Amino acid sequence: MVKTSDELALMRISGRLLASVFEMLDEQDLAGMSTLQVNDLVDRFITDDLAARPASKGQYGFQYVLNCSINHVVCHGVPNAGTIIRDGDIINLDITLEKNGFIADSSKTYLVGNAPPTARRLVRVAQEALWHGIRQVRPDAHIGDIGFAIERHAKKNGYAVVREYCGHGIGREMHEEPQVLAFGRAGTGLKLRPGMVFTIEPMINQGSRKVSTGDDGWTVVTDDGKLSAQFEHTVAVTTDGVDVLTLRRDERPLLQRRV
Q: Is the entire prediction scored with pTM above 0.85?
């Protein structure tokens, strides 16, 4: 659960590499691409350009390097040659990367083309909710502080937080202790210590928080068919706060900004 300084240094490398995957995707026009094309693009970039391993490929029997969750798909969307990303969609891309034996995990919800204002607002609030959670991370804070801050921001904006899926410890394994819920009570749960590394990954629904898993055993959708958005970062507890290991260049101002 707690990483040594040497292990943290290696995790920072994995995190920086994974951030560069999203920076590459930021330059792509996703409209018209199939989700399988996006998967293959990321696969080549991680393996060929970064000399790293896509950690999701083969994990739990999953055949692909990422999850791609469009519109009402909450998480675990499976890449498919027949699923075309359309102008106006929102799509969450959830990607993992392993380098030097350590794994980083991150996701971003992209606005494709002329997404409507209601979708843009949901995506903005989902990203803000993640950062509200990140800002709770410091020594002697409680893990419940993270979920409390996330849910409070989502509810204040009229949205619901999915409860069936959560963040998690990460390192040599993709999923380690502790579980990091996107809801909770402030001042409760595990006390945070320097060296802990985990993901924070709120899934925010436009309507009800209720979700169901499709027949493929992977794809999770909103029961009411309304939109869902997710953002995720891998973070480390430091002696004086938090280090966002998967931080992208465009997010650096968010480290100081209050949302």
A: yes
